[in-house]
Amino acid sequence: MKNLLKLEELAELLLAVLVFAHLPYAWWVLPATFLLPDLSLLGYLAGPRIGAVCYNLAHHKALAVVVGVSGWWLGSSLLLLAGTVLLLHSAFDRLLGYGLKYATGFHDTHLGPVGVRPTEMQLIS
After folding, report:
1. Can you give the pTM of this predicted structure?
2. Distance CA 119, CA 123 (A)
3. Pairing relation of β-strands 105-109 and 112-113?
4. Tens digits of residue pLDDT in 21-39
């Protein structure tokens, strides 16, 4: 099942690249904007609950679809670009195992725990 889900994420990532290929932007724009959704991590400065809400909003694929379809419907290549980048980034994150966050902390995701927890780091040192 895990491989099937990763295949689905890869298909979404490739779809985003295909959509981007039809946009009127140079290819350097894609890597230049790729990490912009991670600015939502700044929400963690206000605590894990707000951080999780900010992160999950910026990494939710439904938002990517709504923004992208709105761009297509309104004829706005900038909105279409934003939706495409959101989808590409979210699919890539999920391929790496970074899921939507729980309010209990950054490491707790819907795909399971990620990274080394601070308590584990203390045990290692």
Report:
1. 0.87
2. 6
3. antiparallel
4. 999 999 999 999 999 999 9
Beta bridge partners of 113: 108
Own/partner pairs for 46-52, CB < 8 Å, 24+ apart? 48/103, 48/104, 48/105, 48/106, 49/103, 51/101, 51/106, 52/101, 52/102, 52/103, 52/106
**Structure confidence by residue, pLDDT tens digits, 44-67:** 999 999 999 999 999 999 999 999
Task: Using CB atoms within 10 Å of the CB of residue 52, give its burial: 0 to 12 exposed, 13 to 18 middle, 19+ buried.
Answer: buried
> For 59, phi and psi rounded to 5 degrees?
-115, 15
Phi/psi at 109 (nearest 5 deg)?
A: -125, 165
User: What are the residues facing 30 on neighbouring strands?
Assistant: none
d(CA 93, CA 79): 21
What is the distance between the alpha carbons of residues 96 and 81, in angstroms, rounded to a whole number?
A: 23
